[in-house]
Amino acid sequence: MSEQQHLAKAGFETRAIHAGYEPDAATGSVIPPIYATSTYKQDGVGGLRGGYEYSRSANPTRTALEGNIAALEQGERGFAFASGLAAEDTLVRSLCKPGDHVVIPDDAYGGTYRLFDKVEQAWGLEHSPAAVSDVDAVRAAIRPGQTRLVWVETPTNPMLNIGDIEALAAVAHEAGALLVVDNTFASPYLQQPLTLGADVVVHSTTKYCGGHSDVVGGALVVRDLGIADAVAFHQNAIGAVAGPFDSWLTLRGLKTLAVRMDRHCDNAEKVVDFLLDHPRVEQVIYPGLASHPGHELAARQMKRFGGMVSFRVTGGEEAALKVCESTEVFTLGESLGGVESLIEHPGRMTHASVAGTDLEVPADLVRLSVGIETADDLLADLDRALG
Ligand SMILES: *Cc1c(COP(=O)(O)O)cnc(C)c1O
């Protein structure tokens, strides 16, 4: 058995640190170098030393990242892209053709919704929204013979709804469709959709996988080799690949994913407890709360409940905006999943584009990406901002 085959049976943290790369034979380099090269010297025409010929097709730093994330998701192959949306677009081109239909979450990440609504639709791909927490609604949205993909996020953003991956996979497969799970919010540490029946996992590695708010990237992981071939062809044919430096940063992030996620979850739980007791907080939304409608499901399919917390402030939109603008440790900003805590107002920021539609979020809603700073400092900051 090779070292990499042994790793298939190893624990998550061991895979995170060792999968995808073996110390370089020539130098012993423990970490893959940033292979800043576009091309590779051939030993005679077609004589490729390491299988590499041009860095859009493959680059050793990217290969290391792709092997690592595939091992973390317990998939057969991984693919790294320039962004989460680049990964999504490549997946759609790989598996769909004009005239096909896709079911998407009715509260999809805004960029995902825009991709389907403005880009894929113009190419001829139809889409219908359905609530991921309602298996019957997803089944009803499927068009037998035309639906190619059922696309879900769980937890969703910013209401943190939970979809039953096992049940949704069964519903998709019954109709001859594939289940795609955007696993960005949970990360592979908390949830591994391929082991629950999903066919493809999508990541914005910009978020928890990279984890340090210093790189934009995306990934796909699949378990079927036929799907892998289609994705590999389109990754090269379209060319929206992750560059070597971005791949190196993301791989560096993945090595500490487990310890970071545990601290994100610890801190989120403390923030939730604090908010529940605060007189200026009307409602706390977190899948770890027994009052959350998806709590039991989340407890079944996730290791813990994640670092994202949403809450509603008494006093409406003005009060919520004031809280967002008053914190000092929590930085006002979009995105999520980095070591630093972020605060934002979905109604005016990440979800401004869905105002006036069915997807509109409450005006008094505040979303937190709870970081890994000292928990007491986070609580004191929120206490000050809530006044
Ligand atoms: C950020 C995000 C994306 C898009 O990823 P980019 O890296 O920004 O292109 C997709 N899905 C979810 C859930 C996200 O949070």
TrEMBL record:
Where is coiled-coil annotated? none
What is a biological process (GO) this protein takes part in?
Answer: cysteine biosynthetic process via cystathionine
What are the EC numbers?
2.5.1.48
**Group of enzyme by EC:** transferase
Write down the required cofactor(s).
pyridoxal 5'-phosphate
Task: Spell out which residues are annotated as carrying N6-(pyridoxal phosphate)lysine.
Answer: K207
Q: Which UniProt keywords apply?
A: Pyridoxal phosphate, Transferase
Alphabetical GO CC annotations of the entry are:
cytoplasm
Please give one Pfam family short name.
Cys_Met_Meta_PP
* Keyword Transcription belongs to the record: no
What InterPro entries does the entry give?
Cys/Met-Metab_PyrdxlP-dep_enz, PyrdxlP-dep_Trfase, PyrdxlP-dep_Trfase_major, PyrdxlP-dep_Trfase_small
Q: Does the keyword ATP-binding apply?
A: no
In its UniProt record, a GO molecular function of this protein is: cystathionine gamma-synthase activity
What Gene3D superfamilies does the record point to?
Aspartate Aminotransferase, domain 1, Type I PLP-dependent aspartate aminotransferase-like (Major domain)
Please give the family membership noted in the entry. Answer: Belongs to the trans-sulfuration enzymes family.
Matching entries from NCBIfam families are given as: PRK07811.1
Q: Which PANTHER family match?
A: CYSTATHIONINE GAMMA-LYASE (PTHR11808:SF15), TRANS-SULFURATION ENZYME FAMILY MEMBER (PTHR11808)
Query: Which protein, by its recorded name, is this?
Result: Cystathionine gamma-synthase
Source organism per entry reads: Nocardioides dokdonensis FR1436
